[in-house]
Amino acid sequence: MKKVLILGFVILASIGVNAQVYQIGDEAIDFKLKNIDGKYISLADYQDAKGFIVIFTCNHCPYSVAYEDRIIDLDNKYKAKGFPIIAINPNDPEIFESDSFENMIRRSKEKGFTFPYLHDETQDIYKKYGATKTPHVFILSNNKGKYTVEYIGAIDNNYKDAEQVTEYYINNAVDALLHNKKPRITMTKAIGCGIRSK
Fold it and tell me: How far is 150 from 173, CA to CA, in rounded Å?
């Protein structure tokens, strides 16, 4: 009987957590997280932004590392058009020391990141958004401070080789939004490493 009750609580807890994650069309909350320069960044700081490409990523995951150059290229392409990239590291550095704040600073300098790289120290934000992998993308549109989820999923359809990509999910979604259209594809499966919590 005790095992059944425990199992029931686990199932209910899982349903509760899953019910809180964002779906397409949901309004996303803003956040205030520490950037690698020591300053705190929020979406509200970007008053002229048309939207955001929020990417949960990290230092240690080979999938995230494979995408670093492409993320820089995406930021260089879309920041000037009103869709800057906001990268967030959701991992617990006690589990992966390479994901510590100090190593985030080091990695950013090594790669020449052109975008904020924020530390989700309490791990509240990735849970609220519903990110499960690194990298995991959430594209938001910005309507006077109302942040609507427009796309959730992968960066593209080939993490191994940028030359072999045939579906550019972020590009296609942002290009559609820049033309006041909804993305053709709004959800894909994020491919990457599982996020580790405290």
Answer: 8
Question: Helices 101-111 & 62-78, crossing angle to 10 degrees?
Answer: 60
- 23-194 carries CATH number 3.30.70.260: no
The type of residue at 116 is P
Residue 13: burial class (beta carbons within 10 Å; 0-12, 13-18, 19+): exposed
Report the residue count for the chain. Answer: 198
119-133 pLDDT, tens per residue? 999 999 999 999 999
pTM: 0.89
Instruction: Report yes or no: 137 and 169 within 8 Å, Cβ to Cβ.
Output: yes
pLDDT tens-digit series, residues 22-64: 999 999 999 999 999 999 999 999 999 999 999 999 999 999 9
How, if at all, do strands 117-119 and 85-89 pair? parallel
Which amino acid, 56? F
What tokens were used for 139? Answer: 């594209």
Residue with tokens 């879309």: 78
